[in-house]
């Protein structure tokens, strides 16, 4: 059975698990790449791979990212219809969703790092705008393509694939505290 057929079959039989597994795989791959790029000599001597970081990123992807995208795209299709639907979805996505989803992801990661809610909020305050600026270089065009050309069932897969590159950047920057 081809990978595409397997994906389609599981998408129909269990869309939530399908999207969770897809997000986990893509985040895991992105974090492995980011860690291999960002690892310095000191980290290599200390054992290299940061498993705690890896599991934080994968947890966020498999729970928050996968579930939110699944329901978010269905929500958009219900409230924005008609000839201007793509533009309305795009505006909502960039003005409302991007800051909200990025804030939630940063907060969730902060909590998983055993930070207090207050420190997780501080992490959001410190990192939200730089994260959004970087994301706005990639996601606006991807969102238009997604809303205009990709069938609803495949929108999370498309955005997860685009997000693979974002995840490398996000994981690298977040861990390096460059934001």
Write up what this structure looks like:
α4 (51-79) runs antiparallel to α5 and α5 (85-112) crosses α7 (139-149). It is built from eight helices and no strands. It has helices spanning 3-13, 15-38, 41-45, 51-79, 85-112, 117-135, 139-149, 155-176. It has one domain (3-176). By secondary structure, the protein is mostly helical. The protein starts with a helix and ends with a helix. It holds the Pfam family Mpv17_PMP22.
The percent range for strand residues is under 5%
Principal-axes shape call: globular
Alpha-beta content class: mainly alpha
What's the helix-strand series? HHHHHHHH
Query: Count of DSSP helices?
Result: 8
Supply the number of structural domains.
Answer: 1
Whole-number mean pLDDT:
88
Q: Report low-confidence residues grouped into runs of 5 or more.
A: none
The main β sheet shows up as:
none
From the N-terminal CA to the C-terminal CA, the straight-line distance is 43 Å
Question: Using DSSP, what is the number of strands?
Answer: 0
Report the helical percentage. over 70%
Question: What's the alpha carbon Rg, rounded to whole Å?
Answer: 17 Å
